[in-house]
Amino acid sequence: MVARATASHGPQGPKLREVELGHLTEADAYDIDEDTTLEGLRWADASFGDRALRGVAFVGCEFVNVALGDADLTAARFGESRLTRLNVPVLQTPDASWVGAEITASRIGAWEAYGANLRATRLTECKVTYANLRGATLTDVLLTGCTFDELDLMDVKGARVSFVDCTIGVLTAHRTQISDLDLRGASIGAVSGMDGLKGATMSDTQVALLAPQFADHLGIVVQ
Q1: Residues 199, 179 contacting (CB under 8 angstroms)
Q2: Are the C-beta atoms of residues 143 and 14 closer than 8 Å to each other?
Q3: Residues 111 and 131: beta-carbon distance below 8 Å
Q4: Cβ neighbours of residue 184 under 8 Å, at least 6 residues apart?
Q5: Is the pTM of this model over 0.70?
Q6: How many structural domains are present in the chain?
Q7: CATH code assigned at 55
């Protein structure tokens, strides 16, 4: 059951810490194989092409202006790593794990992250056309200054997810179960799956703007 935030205390915010990268070694994208563990590496202005990188673990790594192209990062793991200025038509990370990671100042066409696990992770100043997080788990996730044409949270579970200065064109929330979901910092154009907002915290302005959709969902006739 989704916990309801109380009016007196409000929702709990994400529990996060800054990503601290130590000395990093410049790396070549083509030195990576599937199911390997890579630690303390940095890729800058590199291209991963269409390589199969399933199950690769990146620990304490940094990606700067990297072209991931059609690289397959299914079940990859990003631990205490930072990704900056990605510009990719499709980011393929289904069933991936993001723990203590940051994605910053990036432009993503379609982010395929269904079944993923995001924990203690930040997205900052990212523009995403379509984010498919269906069936994912989000725990302690902070989204700041991000724009989503469509954000799909169908069947997502988790806790302590907050939006700050974000814009969401369409929010899909069918069967979403996120305790301490703070949507007050998101401008939302439309919601699909109103039931998934149960327990979320929204501002009175947001509720007023979405009132026609709430009324339609509840079968209320407004005259």
Answers
A1: yes
A2: no
A3: yes
A4: 163, 201, 202, 203, 206
A5: yes
A6: 1
A7: 2.160.20.80
